[in-house]
């Protein structure tokens, strides 16, 4: 089952604690608290604590290096809807940071052991070794080489494999109760997309030269010089904007798909709290649990699918950069 933590986190830790206390005071939260937008968004937002079952205390605060709650920097553009969506820089350790570090440790341990085993035995033996080898070969033969090209693909394979398994493991951790999915935060998906963007730009300039790469953004057109002076600069601007937009969408696609699944699960489980202490609870509770299990199985498929899509599009963008024609 996915990330159904029982917090009511809002924009600040203090407000979150007050919301949790209010929910507890009403015996698990009424209809307003359980199904309110702030409460539901709190299930998928990053926080400086982990939610735990009630018998374990209900919450574990992550130890912080910086004790002050005063923001170091607050983004201010003058456009309130945008300013409200961008959190201030606090330099706090959050649960998504902890989960990302955990994912990194898991990948290092698993693949170090797999590499040692393959080096010693020569072939993959065992269910897990065969499953990992099958995924690695699939990314190499069905994603990297067709999208980038045989000779160039192997140079980018470490990056593509790292992105695939990192995203996949983050997505799978989102199915662990009271954990959370780091890929449900734009800071994470945006950083992954920026890595792909940097790889595309650097690989293209290394292959075609700093000037040749940017000139290659404009397709070859047989235009009279008078028209070319006006049309080619416009096409260049459009192509560069398109390059940036493609990587922005790369981040948003992963973010929205992972966040949407967890929001649906939060809504389904919120029905149980909303109907608490009423006769409808006896019908809502089993139906909600069944729906949550079904959505969790779908989320398992989405976890693999979104990791594959991100990796495939990254390979495609890299291939377009090193082979523009």
Describe the secondary structure blueprint for this structure:
Elements: H1 13-25, H2 31-35, H3 37-42, E1 49-51, E2 59-61, H4 80-85, H5 95-121, H6 127-148, H7 150-173, H8 186-208, H9 210-215, H10 225-274, H11 281-322
Antiparallel strand pairs: 1-2
Please give a structural write-up.
With 325 residues, the chain is mostly helical. It has one domain. It is 69% helix and 2% strand. It has helices at residues 13-25, 31-35, 37-42, 80-85, 95-121, 127-148, 150-173, 186-208, 210-215, 225-274, 281-322, and strands at residues 49-51, 59-61. A two-stranded antiparallel sheet has the order 1-2. Strand 1 (49-51) and strand 2 (59-61) form a beta hairpin. Helix 7 (150-173) packs antiparallel against helix 11. Mean pLDDT is 81; it is low at 1-32.
pLDDT averaged over residues: 81
Number of domains: 1
Number of helices, where a helix is a run of at least 4 consecutive DSSP H or I residues: 11
Biggest β-sheet: strands ordered side by side in the sheet:
1-2
The end-to-end span amounts to: 46 Å
Provide the gyration radius in Å.
Answer: 24 Å
Total E-strand runs: 2
**Proportion of beta-strand residues:** under 5%
Tell me roughly what share of residues is in helical segments: 55-70%
Low-pLDDT runs:
1-32
Query: What pattern of helices and strands is seen along the backbone?
Result: HHHEEHHHHHHHH
Largest sheet: 2 strands, antiparallel
Shape: globular
**Which structural class best describes the helix and strand composition?**
mainly alpha
